[in-house]
Specification:
It is built from 3 helices and no strands. The protein is elongated and about 55 Å long.
Length: 53
């Protein structure tokens, strides 16, 4: 049974947390800028497209 548990377990890879933090900070900065400038009507576009390169 331990063999099957090892096959089906998913653990985070090395440095995945760093990439997730970079994405979260990028989205947060853009959304914060929209809130400050009053452009909340386009926030959905920023939130969905900011992590694409």
């Amino acid at each position: 049974m331990k063999i099957l548990a090892g096959i089906f377990s998913i653990a985070p890879a090395n440095k995945d947390h760093r990439l997730a933090l970079r994405c979260a900070v990028g989205v947060f900065i853009q959304l914060l800028t929209l809130v400050v400038t009053g452009g909340c009507s386009v926030a959905i576009y920023v939130a969905s497209g900011s992590s694409r390169r």
